Amino acid sequence: MAQINLEALAHSYMARPRDAKDYALRQMNHVWEDGGAYALLGPSGCGKTTLLNIISGLVHPSEGRVSFDGEDVTDLPPEHRNIAQVFQFPVIYDTMTVRANLAFPLRNRGVPRDRIDARVTEIARMLDLDDVLDEKAIGLGADAKQKISMGRGLVRDDVAAVLFDEPLTVIDPHLKWQLRRKLKEIHEQLKLTLVYVTHDQTEALTFADKVVVLYEGRVVQLGTPQELFERPEHTFVGYFIGSPGMNFLDCRLDGHRVVVDGEAIELTPGVADAVPDGHQRLQIGIRPEFLRLAEDGEAGVPAVIESVADLGSYRIASVLMGAERRLQVKLGEDSAAGPGDVRLLFPPEWTKLYADDLLVG
């Protein structure tokens, strides 16, 4: 396995890019540790697949370097990078048996027969393919075929990294959870360096140790699932992670507090002092899980519950604050709150301040 280092990396599909908007990937510097499980998460067109293909060598970056364990591989073709890549659609040989498919990458490299047999048996067991090892791949379902494709990527134990490009897209929803869990188990057993591209936050957060969030060609945050949820460093992360996403309100500073439509909201001490000079826009952000309805005797910001949706284990209240500011509040399943006047509490420790989309403090 390998540590992957991206140094001043950027890429444009234009011959002569002039400004930031001409880049599919804007300049980034990141180190992905040996043996880590990483997810590249973001919406369509944000640069996820471009970054994956640069790591694998299918795309040469316009700027910067890629190194594996300190060795510069920027100019090396894919076959010399020792990378395994699993694509969105299964890449297998339908006329071969499952056993032959899994063994193929090892036979091509002249691995001894006994080692091939042992490794194929090990990977087939991990992927629950033991019972179909001697069946032709053509007769199997889409989920089994994608397992074979994954197995072909995992069967080599000498690869620098295994790259997954949205591998569960063609899998039925009820099987996706099983395959995500299986990949997590395999990572824990084999300690492979895994990079998993997805636009699905559930896939990213349940699979990865650390998630790389891309937005408009930029890495806006690299962190654990807990860090992305509790401390989004960019408003896009707050919006994209969570269901529903973070509530955002435009505001202005008033000493060590912020004011929203004439209502003062307290911040954690010291945060207001860290607001950068020359900012264009200030917002506070708070997740629906941390926004509270005031109880008797508690002060708060006046608001009106417009509707409450019952989602089984919890309820989501749609709340109107002021004339046009709508927020989402997550309530317990036993909450009796319904439409009508309420007061909202913004706990300072969970109320984040953003200047021009970037977290302050």
UniProtKB/TrEMBL annotation:
Entry-linked CDD domains: ABC_Carb_Solutes_like (cd03259)
Tagged with keyword Membrane: yes
Domain ABC transporter: 4-241
Gene3D superfamilies: 2.40.50.100, Nucleic acid-binding proteins, P-loop containing nucleotide triphosphate hydrolases
One Pfam assignment: OB_MalK
Keywords assigned: ATP-binding, Cell membrane, Membrane, Nucleotide-binding, Transport
GO molecular function: ATP binding
Cited InterPro entries: AAA+_ATPase, ABC_transporter-like_ATP-bd, ABC_transpr_FbpC, ABC_transpr_MalK/UgpC-like, Mo/tungstate-bd_C_term_dom, NA-bd_OB-fold, OB_MalK-like, P-loop_NTPase
Name assigned to this protein: ABC transporter ATP-binding protein
Source organism: Salinisphaera aquimarina
